[in-house]
Amino acid sequence: MKELTYREMGLTEEEYGKIKIIMGREPNYLEIGIFSVMWSEHCGYKNSRPLLKTFPTEGPQVIQGPGENAGVVDIGDGQAVVFKIESHNHPSAIEPYQGAATGVGGIVRDIFTMGARPIANLNSLRFGDPGDARVRELLSGVVAGIGDYGNCLGIPTVGGEVYFNQAYQGNPLVNAMCVGLVQTDEIALAVASEVGSTIMIVGAKTGRDGIHGATFASEELSEKSKEKRPSVQVGDPFMEKLLIEACLELIKEDLVAGMQDLGAAGLTSSIAETVSKRGRGVDVDVLKVPRRETNMSAYEVMLSESQERMLIVPRPGTEGRIKEIFDKWGLDAVTIGTVTEGGAFRVMEGNEVMGEVPVMELTEGCPVYVRVAEEPDYYQRCKSYDLAAILDANPQEALEKLLASPNIASKKWIFSQYDYQVMTNTALIPGDGDAAVLRIKGTRKGIALVTDCNSRFVYLDPYRGGMLAVCEAALNLACVGAKPLALTNCLNFGNPEKPNIYWQMKNSIAGMSEAARYLETPVVSGNVSLYNETAQGAIYPTPVVGMVGLLKDIDRRCDMAFKDAGDLIILLGRFRDELGGSEYLSVCHGLETGEVPEVNLEEEKRLIELLQILIQEQLLQSCHDISEGGMMVAAVESAIKGNIGCGVRINTDDGRVDGVLFSEAPGRVVASLKRSNMDRLVQVVIENGVEMRVIGAVGGDSLLCDNNGKEIIRIPVLEASRIWGGAIDCFMK
Amino acid sequence: MKFGVVVFPGSNCDADCYHVIKEVLGQEVDYIWHKEIAVQGYDALILPGGFSYGDYLRTGAIARFSPIMPAVIEFANQGGLIIGICNGFQILLEAGLLPGAMLRNRSLKFICDKVHLQVKRDDTPFTRLLKQDETISIPVAHGEGNYFCDAETLAELQREKRILFTYCSPSGEEDMVFNPNGSIANIAGITNKQGNVLGMMPHPERCSEHILGGTDGYRIFASMLQSWQEVSC
Predict the structure, then answer these.
(1) SS3 per residue for A331-356
(2) B140 min Cα distance to partner chain A (Å)
(3) CA distance A141 to chain B (A)
(4) Do A154 and B13 touch (CB under 8 A)?
């Protein structure tokens, strides 16, 4: 009976043995439940903690690094941005609409828990082949779920990325990021330090939904997963909107000593995390918790993952005022417990003690596993793949295929379902620039936001791929004129108990760490999602980077659209033609292989700094990084956005034609400028030690490309726009 | 001029409207909590966008019963200027201050985009700084903006020239193709008989500053200000 219980709750025999030693007795059902959720990967990071420790987390801009609900970064003038990204993969695989919606709800709570007003949402999504009906259903559901929740909250969804690959067929990824703005003297933390302080639960009532969601999120998906649909919570964005307003009123009136949201593992983890930070204990009475279902056991109340609830540790004597504010918003605010000395987490039902566990053992005592890492066979095989043997495709046909690839095509079908303008701060809307830009009202400042990860690169070479995810995010921010400040990450991998998967984790984290350290963009928050596997195998390793940058003067920002006929088009960065891991190889040759292009961090850094200067000096008309589809697709996207043609010239002396046009080698951007600015630009570029060449000019109504003077591509802009703009719509109709 | 922005639980464009009135138009403005029962001292009211009460039953259907609404209706009957934007428009319909009803968008999806409107009249308190037949550019963001009314009501709206804005192409051509939600007769905004209450789905507060990509929305608020200045002088 007991064995069945702990195994069903996701604990191993060894872990159960450890719990018995801690308790000095057999734990009861409730206590096993508490341990199992707190020691799940989702709450305890037991497989990833040693690796996470290698991230750089400090810098003069960092106010709060990992360990709180979200990271906090200084943006000057007594203001800070608060941000974090989090996964909701497993729930979304089973119930896409609610899974995605509650993913947004959870990450938004993490932000206002810190006392910040949430001002932007972003996301990073991965799906299987959109030709598959189930995949389209998942995509529709996830997008509607993200949209309906965020739109109702009135938080703009300003950016994100979406990729389609067979590797995510049965296991989509839904990562949601939220960014908030806070006065640095109003930051709230999730701590309860005063013995005798009360603990209040506020917001929605507690039901039976989502019990053991954290444990569910820490397993592989299987046919049986559908039976776990009750582990998926249901979101109520209206309730969350009221909760945001009420909680921010508490902060403004300085009524809060500590605040924590109820996310994975519900009351159990929020209480444990809040009191354990100062080594305190707690008495909590489950009978006092407002419920929306009858006959709930102490176990169900403690483990419920009902949404839209928060835990508040009031400043002494403020409970009455807190109740008044919540009453104004029509919400519950109830005292359910007291902070105690001595570190015992005691669950009461009235006067009866239902369970008692030492609180530090739930958090600090969580077992940590350093798994075995083993290089998979595919690594060397792909790396040494002879790409020279691949025939050069017809450039015109290849370009058309690339523009129609859902990984490159316009994502308007998706982002037009998100309100990206509410709050009237969005100065660069989705699709217009390499990153979203928001103004900070009352200042000249702006912030730039982006999410990035090319998971094909990470799969082929986790170390380089990890570096590239960080570099691309930083370069995207620089392309709109921002200085990259710091990052948050969402580490999506398969089952870490498998040596090949752990090898992917270990190496990609090492790559990310190195790049983040070099670019001085420390990791301030993050989330880990493991066991993203189905019977068909693991997902591509997908360590998503969410990065925030600062623009000193928002009037000097840059979008990606070509502007005026006669403007010159330049390539900044080294001229490269490596095709390994490119979308071109995948779309035109059906290959996902090759050596991932080498990353030179010094070059990346120089380019990132150069772009900030060029945009600050208003020398650029447009700027767009070279990523999926390479240089030619970058130029075509700028032309489509500007609704104007362009001509690009290449010479085969530069390498093979497809390599020159479609290489995704990093550290490069396609920019345009007025001819009259060329002299000054060249001077600045040389001063900053970046390579550059003129590759063409803006004008006309067609996209042209010449190789050694011979025309190899000619597509009317309208036609390219139709292919690129309609590809995802075509799938979804 | 003093504006009041009515705040329902779930309103989420209240702060945006407040910002435009105060910082861009430079006029006085207060939030009015929906549990208030009076709107004295205001020269104009804004019913902002959002999702009042989550719009769980039907858009605007619960907000219409908020304690503030009798005072809003009285304000309208006395000729006070009211602009209902998006959810505010939906609430005005539910409250009976404007005729017709909202259906879900033709696509059955939420839509956020920039659209073009044709200005049908420039002799109203809301459009006097615009030009008749001019095309303006303005953002929309809604799931239920598919305005519907019966043939008789439509004929009345047309006869009485109460349609102020219709969806159109960038060059002003009216066609369903340029209509983001499928509304009848491409309607984007209408007034009451007296012309002092406007309901519109697009968001003028989202295009009242250059940094947001346009200022056509500002001209609507500025029209209200100029109308008030003339009346009060």
Answers:
(1) CEEEEEEEEECCCEEEEEECCEEEEE
(2) 9
(3) 11
(4) yes
List the beta strands (DSSP E) in A141-270. 157-164, 173-183, 198-203, 256-261
**What are the angstrom distances between the C-alpha of A13 and each of A360, A371, B53?**
21, 18, 49
In eight-state DSSP terms, residue A287 is: G
Does residue B20 sit at the A interface (CB-CB below 8 Å)?
A: yes
Q: Do B54 and A238 touch (CB under 8 A)?
A: yes
Q: Per-residue pLDDT tens for A511-532?
A: 999 999 999 999 999 999 999 9
Q: In sequence order, what are the beta bridge partners of A452? A: A545
List, as one string, the DSSP characters of A219-252.
Answer: S---GGGGGGGGGS----HHHHHHHHHHHHHHHH
Average pLDDT for residues A63-85, to the nearest whole number? Answer: 96
Q: Taking CB atoms and an 8 Å limit, are A427 and B212 in contact across chains?
A: yes
Q: What is the pLDDT of residue A18?
A: 95
CA dihedral A199, A204, A206, A212 (to 10 degrees): -90
Angle CA(A557)–CA(A563)–CA(A569) in degrees, nearest 5?
Answer: 90
| Partners of residue A427 in chain B, C-beta under 8 Å | 211-212
Token couple for A222: 């299987």
Subunit contact A151:B51, Cβ cutoff 8 A: yes
Q: What is the pLDDT of residues A9-36, one digit of tens each?
A: 889 999 999 999 999 999 999 999 999 9
Residues of B in contact with A239 (CB under 8 A): 54
First to last CA, chain A: 51
Cβ pair A416, B113 in contact under 8 A: yes
Q: Give the tokens for residue B45.
A: 């009211």
Across the interface, whether the CB atoms of B112 and A417 are under 8 A apart is answered: yes
In percent, the amount of chain A with pLDDT more than 90 equals 88
Interface test with A, best of B7, B11, B12, B35 (most A CBs within 10 A): B12
User: Using an 8 Å Cβ cutoff, are A543 and A609 in contact?
Assistant: no
Q: What band does A1 get if pLDDT is binned at 50, 70 and 90?
A: very low
DSSP assigned state of A184: G
Residue of A19, A34, A82, A4 lying closest to A212 (CA atoms): A34
Distance CA A492, CA A505 (A): 9
% of chain A at pLDDT higher than 70 = 97
Residue range A240-278, pLDDT digits in tens: 999 999 999 999 999 999 999 998 889 999 999 999 988
Smallest Cβ–Cβ distance between B16 and the set A418, A423, A429 belongs to A423
Give the C-alpha separation, A108 to A96, whole Å. 18
Which residues from chain A sit within 8 angstroms of residue B139, using beta carbons? Answer: 421
Architecture label for domain B2-232: 3-Layer(aba) Sandwich (3.40)
What is the DSSP pairing of strand A344-349 with strand A281-285? parallel
DSSP string, B175-231: -GGG-SS--GGGEEEEE-TTS-EEEESS-GGGGSBGGGTB-HHHHHHHHHHHHHHHH
Q: For residue B190, give how far its alpha carbon lies from the nearest alpha carbon of chain A (Å).
A: 23
Query: What's the mean pLDDT when you consider all of chain A?
Result: 94
Neighbours of A327 (CB within 10 A): 12
Which positions in chain B touch A241 (Cβ < 8 Å)? 9-10, 12, 51, 54
pTM of the entire structure?
0.95
Domain ranges of chain B: 2-232
Tell which residue, A691, A523, A244, has the closest CA to residue B9: A244
